[in-house]
Design a protein that fits this description.
The protein is an alpha/beta fold. It has a single domain, classed as 3-Layer(aba) Sandwich (Protocatechuate 4,5-dioxygenase, Chain B). Helices cover 33% and strands 22% of the residues. Strand 7 and strand 8 (213-220) form a beta hairpin. Helix 3 (109-120) packs across helix 7 (185-194). The two termini are 12 Å apart. The model is unreliable at 46-51 and 67-73 (pLDDT under 50).
């Protein structure tokens, strides 16, 4: 079963070597690290004088590179989103086994949702780390040209993440998401399939480079 899940984005600036003297995404970085640290420690500690068990493993779900590709990446398991997930786990000192689960950024919604259901059925307790970006069309100078539909689309997504509204994520218009260059759509729908009834929280949201980035956490109700 899924013990908890965290959603983070995958900007290149989260990787070593891409940040100079200043860190333009320091706040985003801190929010992502804090959320991932909480994820891998979910359920650990003492309760009533007895130790509580935490996750048995972490599964990283990340889309294969599509809209925001890195030229040196050639295999799905080495996609930018997977690398960011691995880095964040390393930075918070994760000592749990890690399973990598790539999914095509353009995978059909039913395939993504079914994968989430399969992950929820894994034996033991799973911590789910979902990595995926929102629309890349929030600024004229962003990776894509400005699209006025991007902002209202993102508002719906953020509300769904805050409310743990899996139905809204499952029902994302895939054609619209493709037009808006939403690289994380399929990964988000894996999350929706894995936790159909969740309590949610949004820790950070913004579009500093014309690409929407969200940090959120979900836990089963």
């Amino acid at each position: 079963m899924i013990l908890g899940a965290v959603l983070v984005p995958s900007p290149l600036l989260l990787l070593p070597g891409y940040v100079g003297a200043s860190d333009p995404i320091a706040e985003l970085r801190g929010a992502a690290q804090a959320a991932v640290a909480a994820l891998v420690s979910t359920g650990r500690g003492e309760a009533g004088g007895r130790a509580r068990s935490g996750p048995d493993e972490v599964v990283i779900v990340g889309g294969t590179d599509g809209y925001a590709s890195s030229p040196e990446i050639t295999a799905p398991e080495h996609s930018l989103s997977i690398r960011v997930g691995q880095l964040l786990l390393s930075e918070v000192g994760n000592d749990l086994p890690v399973t990598i689960q790539p999914i095509g950024y353009d995978a059909p919604a039913d395939q993504a949702i079914a994968l989430g259901v399969q992950l929820a059925a894994r034996p033991g307790l799973t911590a789910l780390l979902v990595v995926g970006d929102g629309s890349a069309r929030h600024l004229p100078s962003g990776p894509g040209t400005l699209d006025e539909r991007a902002a209202p689309f993102e508002e719906v997504v953020v509300d769904a993440l805050r409310e743990g509204d899996a139905a809204t994520l499952r029902g994302i218009d895939t054609e619209l998401a493709d037009e808006l260059m939403v690289a994380g759509r399929a990964a988000w729908q894996v999350l929706a399939g894995a936790l159909p009834d969740a309590a949610g929280a949004v820790h950070w949201t913004g579009a500093p480079f014309g690409v929407a980035y969200h940090v959120a956490s979900w836990s089963p109700r």
